[in-house]
Specification:
Elements (H helix, E strand, L loop, with lengths): L1 H9 L7 E3 L3 H10 L26 E3 L1 E6 L10 E5 L4 E4 L3 E2 L8 E5 L6 E4 L5 H9 L1 E4 L6 H29 L12 H16 L2 H4 L5 H22 L2 H12 L10 H14 L5 H8 L4 H8 L2
Helix pairs in contact: 4-5, 4-7, 5-7, 5-9
Length: 300
């Protein structure tokens, strides 16, 4: 059992995708899971409950930092990530295990043929939470020579248009959950997350000083506004509001949204576009204001 646990922890996520958190709660769980007294046989529960051996899985956190192309989703092989802390800076080549967020204040990503990306991940910033959850950074291609630049810009515009159309189709499907089948396009959520990161990156001071990419930033921002408006309109329907309320309270899904695929797709879409709190945080806020008013505030 000890050998199996050691191999499982060593090769988490293929050896690079996940690591063990260093938080106080994780350390306590590791102490319980790795208690030195191991059972003598598979029915021995006198000294230590064998179920406790699995508690180390609660300490696993994603830590692999990946840099991708915002248009194609392919990994940028030549990217270089510079991590800035209080007293030093470290250059790494992704994919690479990312350090604790408490040890990093800012991130700068550069790659040949792509716009440089600078992110402020200091304590309290919105980008910090986004990077800690996704661990994926998207780079925007630079505008090349005039003839090729028109082609690249047209591809970017085509991707923005396609993303908006796919969001409209998904919202129309979710309003009729009984007609949702296995063909639900779950990749729409990933496209929205790429678009959101792209908009955040394009509103950096780097873009403000470069007029050649201002057109890209404007098109991306307008596309984001259209996507957010469409999802907010979906969330204002009574059925969707009831579904969100049941998700926060942990109740069973609404009978009108009994299809689990439609329910999961709706929740994923709302969280990808709107800054919604986690269910535990939402219930804490619900102790101060009614859930209906909380939803109205989130949809402003």
């Amino acid at each position: 059992m000890a050998s199996h646990m050691a191999l499982g922890i060593l090769f988490l996520g293929g050896g690079a995708r996940f690591t063990i958190s260093r938080s106080t709660q994780s350390i306590a769980l590791l102490v319980v899971a790795l208690f030195p007294r191991f059972p003598q046989h598979y029915t021995d529960n006198c000294e230590h409950l064998q179920a406790w051996r699995h508690l180390w899985a609660l300490c696993v956190v994603p830590r692999c930092l990946v840099v991708r192309d915002v248009r194609t989703g392919q990994m940028c092989r030549d990217a270089v990530v510079v991590l800035h802390s209080e007293n030093r800076q470290t250059s790494v080549v992704p994919p690479v295990p990312f350090p604790e967020m408490d040890c990093v204040q800012s991130i700068r990503v550069s790659a040949p043929g792509y716009m440089a990306l600078s992110l402020d991940v200091s304590l309290g910033s919105h980008t910090r939470d986004l990077v800690s959850r996704r661990r994926v950074l998207y780079l925007q291609p630079q505008t090349p020579a005039p003839m090729h630049g028109i082609a690249v810009l047209s591809q970017f515009t085509e991707w923005l248009t396609s993303t908006q159309m796919r969001v409209n189709v998904l919202c129309a499907q979710l309003m009729q959950p009984h007609s949702v089948n296995d063909a639900v396009d779950s990749s729409v959520v990933h496209a929205i997350q790429r678009l959101r990161i792209c908009v955040l990156a394009m509103h950096s001071p780097f873009v403000a000083r470069n007029s050649c990419v201002s057109g890209w930033a404007e098109k991306a921002y307008l596309a984001w506004l259209n996507v957010r408006t469409r999802v907010v309109a979906l969330a204002r329907h009574d059925e969707i509001r009831r579904l969100l309320t049941r998700y926060w309270t942990g109740s069973q899904p609404n009978t009108q949204l009994s299809d689990m695929r439609a329910s999961y797709a709706t929740i994923a879409l709302l969280y990808a576009v709107l800054d919604l709190p986690a269910p535990s945080d939402a219930m804490k806020l619900a102790q101060q204001v009614p859930i209906s008013q909380l939803i109205d505030f989130m949809l402003q």
